Structures
1.
Amino acid sequence: MGQSMKIKPIPVPAQGSTLDWHLDQPYRAKHLLWLLLALAFLLFTGHRTEMDKMVVMTGQAVGNVIGLADDSQVVRGLSRVGESMWPPALGTQEEVARLTDLDRENLPFLASIQVHERVEQKLNTDTLELEEHREQAELLVKPLGYVWLVFIKMLETIEIAIWGTLFSVVLSIPLAWYAARNYTYNKFTYTLARGTISLLRSMPELIVALFLVLAYGFGPIAGVLALGLHAAGFLGKFYAEDIENADKKPQEALEAIGAGKLKTLWYGVMPQVVPQYIAYTLYILDRNVRMATVIGLVGAGGIGQELKGRFDMFQYDHVATILIAIFIVVFLLDQFSARLRAKLI
Amino acid sequence: MIEFKEISKQWPDGTMALSEVSVSIPKGQFCVILGPSGAGKSTLLRAVNGLMQPTNGRIVIDGTALTPATARYLRQRVAMIHQHFNLTLRMSVAGNVLAGLLPVVSTGRAILGWFTPEHRAKACSLLARVGLTPKHVQRRAGELSGGQQQRVGVARAFMLDPEVVLADEPVASLDPKISREILGLIRDAARERNATVLCSLHQVDLAREFGDRIVGMRDGKIVFDGTPAEFTDERVEALYRGAKWEDTPKVEEEVSFEGMPSDLVAA
């Protein structure tokens, strides 16, 4: 009723009065001025962010590839890394002498023991001459050993992502309740919840993980907490906004019979917002898997920790294996969440 | 027995939706409130369960005045049937009907959806009563037609065996045949429980057919109060006379161009 009161009739002018019809051009000098200002801004900031240099270097690189330019810093850098990345590392070799609990009769799957001859130059202290010294070493060769290791680390990463997601969902439910304008108790709880959400969202996972590693030590605890805290802010915000925007009609029906806030939320709002909630949560799971690979860089467990170690030791063939593994997992997860969404919505 | 004691409602923009409406509806009566749009019918109904807070005046239901302290208790005894059905469309028909019990079900049971066998049997018998079949029970409410949705709305309203049923234009968006069926269901279910019905309507013929009593409203005031027999065609004419574009408020008529026929002032 309050709505219908706002409808105003369009006044119809008296018959015979002359009407002034005109339809203006959509642009005026004002718009040109704005365009020039925007251009000036882009030129200024573009120079400061070295976009001009980027264009020159990329041009050189393209020229170098098609044979027009002699040298390109970009191509040199990339090809140096690229050459050492291919082929990706698949297997591992370990000296049998260092393995104390190796059972020769019962070798691990696909593994074999190979004898390698090592030639070393050694200084003979009597003659003061270098002599060739031959040494035989037994190596335990696992042809897919590194793939298996990456697989295990990847599983750990996914586990961190799943627990980070669970943690964020549990944390964001009360946040969403208090941050929804129509369900919070008062202005104070609303402001508190919204403030907490902003705070959580403003802290990047990597920075949080850096501090949590100091608190909880290296390993997955810091990873799970860092992912969970950041995602709780994201989910709290989006859950709350869906509660606020849900269709008011069923809520009014339940409010009218005195069902109480919590039961009204559960029966009048939740069924409406569940598909969106699933979509948000799947996005967070997807994001957490990708972020879990990154926060390992600061020691918060998972594949990232392995990646960082190999990168620092210039073992780019191992890095290549890890990157391929990350790509496969993200791709599979995309497929999985797309199917789940299609099924549930 | 519902007593409206000098109920007034002024919207924040200054419009008087209700001006000192006093009327009392005895127990078990089917009272139709009739009038053009914007007359204040919905506003009057919504005063009964406190969805609308009147600026002045009091509501007394069976001797208990509606105050913030008694609202929760009184609301359980006042059911409401809505113009737009107000069902949770993505929830099952069963869930929507059982939601009518929420005020008396513990929070734990409500969250788990673990209703007692008696409650579930009651939901089934009411769904049968309003003419639905067992195959509807697990369907989503949004998959049903408008008429079927309002049947679910009626079943939900009677889950708590209310003493008062507020029906806010319950058949405004339904065709005449289904409208008669729905109003018949509301009337019969209310009679079985000796519940008072307060039903706002647009349609004069339906009001005459179903009402024990007709209250005519215009511009926030009661302009007719009597039996359907007393509600003659002249009375109908008087109630709707001069009502032009349904929602055009009075203020706007003053800005219309002088000398123009008022029906050219398009809403």
Note: Chain A touches chain B through 34 residues (CB under 8 Å).
2.
Amino acid sequence: MTTDVAIIGVGLHPFGRFPGVSGIEMGAVAIRRALADAGADWRDIQFAFGGSYEVDNPDAVVALMGLTGIPFTNVYNGCATAASSLTLAAQTIRLGECDLGVAVGMDKHLPGAFSADPSLYACPSWYGEQGQFTTTKFFGMKINKYMQDHGISASTLAKVAAKNYRNGSLNENAFRRKPLSEEEILASPLLNYPLTQYMFCSPDEGAAAVVLCKAENARRYTDAPIYLRASTVRTRRLGAFEVHSPWLPMEQTPGPTVDASRAAYETAGIGPGDVDVVQLQDTDAGAEVIHLAENGFCADGEQEKLVADGTFEISGSLPVNTDGGLIANGEPIGASGLRQVHEVVRQLRGQAGERQVQGNPRVGYTQLYGAPGTAGVSILSR
Amino acid sequence: MAEHLLTRRGRLWAWTTQHFPPPSPPYAGPTGKDFVPFGIGYVELGDEVKVETRLTEADPEALRTGMEMELTLVPIREDDDGNDVVTFAFQPVVVQ
């Protein structure tokens, strides 16, 4: 894949809580906004991929969009659902069967930590009965170990969360729009040491959509196409330290984010030093810290100084989670990664308003990670 | 498949503490006001395997990566007849 697929439209239904609005309705809003952004008509769309956890049949959105008979494939791939929808949509165009399609994600989660039947994750039932089938405790263990191994302080976690709330306060589509101080974040209830309540994102509701086309057609729709230079999904290998692992082998191997990231850089012919704006999976503030290194943006341990120096602020040299990330937007699983793409596209077009990264950014990067050890990375450029 | 006996003692490789009741189901232990925080970690058993386990200690000040841990049993719930249902856990080895 080089520059053969372009993103010509992006649309969001805001993230948050919307009583009385269904997931499908939010998906339709996102699609309509993406089509309007692209200047394309639903009748011209040749295929769609739709991602969701809570909505059984995202393809039912055609009832609201128009019954045009297109192939519409539903996708669920954990926290990397949106990365999978995007990757499959891009591949459909690359195969040459279709020129113009939509990737959409929508979700409507209840408040509180995610839960499921452990057997659905190939885990024994006792693992859940005794209280170990939770994602939050994995994130607590991973960052606690990382902080000890690489000299990261709790203050750095608070600074990362505070940055994301601050960025979210500039984003009219965000769930949490109130800035929180480092002190408030550190003083909020401890959930899984060293992570406090305000260091975590919440499952919530929302939808996001993108319109993709064959790159050579992009200028029919826009004079500012954004090219999808790579979109990769990887799952964990034996030895990776992953969520929902009742045991691990002694020898540790890199996680799926590292694998997806390396593959994406190689496909795109772009390195981390070329990237101007970044969206990372910040399920919690610690995850953002770890993912900075796992995606090649710094060495392990450098985050302590880089965060203190403001490197990852909107005004810094490598802005991360400029729209507030998951911490400010929450995580409607099916939509989360397309929200990241939406923000990167806005930034690369210079349309991010108060959140606009200065210096005319050219290259953007997005990363998703989640249970049971799945990661997705995309690289976009003007 | 064959049974393989693992050592009862190991070293704490990674850990956290659980300060809110996990969603029930699948969690079968006490919730609400009866919930008692617990530790969770991976213990390296010899050079064979890391086992994820509950820890008897939930005070972050009392847990330290690399500390020696020992197998024990803890109750997680009562069955219909009021008997304790127990599971494996690891506790810090107390140095005499």
Note: The mean pLDDT of chain B is 94.
3.
Amino acid sequence: MPGGTPYNGALMTSAISPGPASAVSDGSRYPYRHLLGIEGLSRPDIDFLLDRADGFVEQNRQVDKKSSTLRGRTLINLFFENSTRTRTSFELAGKRLGGDVINMSVSTSSIKKGETLIDTAMTLNAMHPDALVVRHSESGAVHLLAEKVNCSVVNAGDGSHEHPTQALLDALTIRRRKGHLEGLEVAICGDVAHSRVARSNIHLLSIMGARVRVVAPPTLLPSGIERFGVEVHHDMERGLAGCDIVMMLRLQTERMKGSFVPSIREYFRYYGLDEDKLQAAKPDALIMHPGPMNRGVEIDSVVADDIARSLIREQVEMGVAVRMAVLEILVTNQTEPWAKNQ
Amino acid sequence: MRPTLFKNARLLDPAARLDAKGAVLVRDGRIAEVGPQLFVDAIQEDVEVVDCGGRCLAPGLVDMRVQTREPGEEHMETLASLQAAAVAGGVTTVATLPNTSPIIDDISILEFVERLAQEVGLVNVHPYAAATKGLKGLEMTEIGLLSASGAVGFTDGVKAIADAAVMRRLLSYATMFDRVVIQHPEDPTLARGGCATEGEIATRLGLPGIPACAEVMMIERDLRLVRLTGGRYHAAHVSTAAAIEAIRRAKADGLKVTCDTAPQYFALNELAIVDYRTFAHMSPPLRAESDRQAVAAGVADGTVDAIASDHNPEDQDAKRVPFTQSVPGAVGLETLLPISLGLVHDGAMELLDLIDRLTLRPARILGLEGGTLAPGAWADLMVFEPDRAVRIDAHRFRSKSKNSPFDGKPAQGRVWRTVYRGRTVFDLDAEEPRSRREQSHA
């Protein structure tokens, strides 16, 4: 104990390890049992996931979209927080791989009866699923659950912590349009403080060699964000100057305790993405949004619906492909039932 | 009871500033003779001899911040399990917070708890009384009557006394009874919803943060009120460099101000919560490394008067949940000594000074005896091995709750024997504390 935990003063290492390695390490480049976050992954890990996802894009555009890689495997979508698009995306991904997919919305069932997260995890674990896809309103809840089950766990968003498949689908979308990620200038704008999407994207883009700026009022930036290796801006036009990609974030009023901006009107005036502010970016800059959009809050309809510049629909398409890749890699990594808790 | 002679010991008496080889003779529960000059062979009486084998003999520890869960939540801790844990940790005096159920804000409840504690009879239990009725932070409790019934201080426990006017009146009124007002120093509006110190680590983990300045803001406000009222003020579990600096200045100005800290604030920093380890979720939250170092330095130079365990028993349900939903706090009675000894092993301070922070100084803040080996004092003693390597094992705690951030960690220092009023209440060799209750049932 003397001196306590050794402290890394310039903490640029990950606060979270990617989790236990899978039973096989046959050279497959995603050697982990879970996907809990982007932080801690390496560039080859991410390249491997994206390459695999790329292959599924074509499959999804066929008339017959189904393969049988996950036949006989059970996937459970365990959502403790409401979601339509992410849950549907994971459900489609699992079904197109031939797996059996069960959806559980827990906010309405056992939690209200006082069952704890761990009880729920243990109950589901006893049914021998092969993968759990989990969304929870509290940061770290998915890690806790992953410690208690024998199957693979995919983080579908935990509190303000991470949303790794969103960052992967964003990266795939950019890569397919721009051909690469390295060297791109990416501006992430809006409610960074409450956004798990922002954290996962900052990690991923930095790992892949892109340069990230965050643009937001100080009240919507989390403390210490500059230590993530990003440029910090409070002015949209300066923040967008010369950038290749503009990523807008949803203003997460449901996660805010108290008033972080005075009004929607004022927020849109200074931080809403419209034609004027977009002038500062490169002429071929592309616009992204993780959805669901608040039109007239963080983004103007004209910009959101500009087919030439907006990647918003393509992001949704890539989402299915990325989730297929993640599920396939994690589940087929499993060659034998996991030893109980490692 | 036959007199007992503790011989062949390294005596550590902070009151006499004594650190020397010698012996202690205990008669009728009190220290009869003591010192390097005590000639063991010259004692004619029929005495029981305890050969300390060169181990350290010090006054029993005085732990000024302990939470019991009896009455109300006995599945987490009873006054019996609390006292058993205390003696295993070398603690012979505890001051307990009033946040039981019912809350200790009335003399009848205070006296009830005192009686329950005395029935166990392993250590001195001195309850604090609530500073405000129902811990609501609005109306003063009966400070005079509660003092007369044995309340050693007034506090709202784990809640800050937020209202400045209420704090002013408390400080002012308590001067009549020479009682100390103990604050949980944290601005509650800045702390609202937070569970980690604001900064890079909380941001990486996506946890809502509390700015570190929430502590010093409350302390600086209170110090203005101390200046205004002349009251006696104690800041509990200080954890930041800024707070310690504010208290250092106030002491230099002659204000009646004291403070304590808990071992986690000089032995751990905020990195302990990485991977969402809820057992390291504390209130106040663990801090940056620079703050940890300032707390260690404050203990060493005496700005931080006392080390208290901040013993906070919580059950599994409180900790086996997502970090944001977990209840902060750790049990500490059985790790107080070995973790604190880290400061001595690190070379930060002398052993006698550490014992001073763990015995004499907290006793003086509360107006209690203790922290002395002077003849005539109660023989509340602890014999320990300061260098012995140990691995902390929460499952072997006598406390009913096992929530410790130190579980599994190596440390140095172990209690060999604890003596309460001349009676051995913990004996490592026998591994079983003898309580009066057990004896009377035997």
Note: Chain B touches chain A through 43 residues (CB under 8 Å).
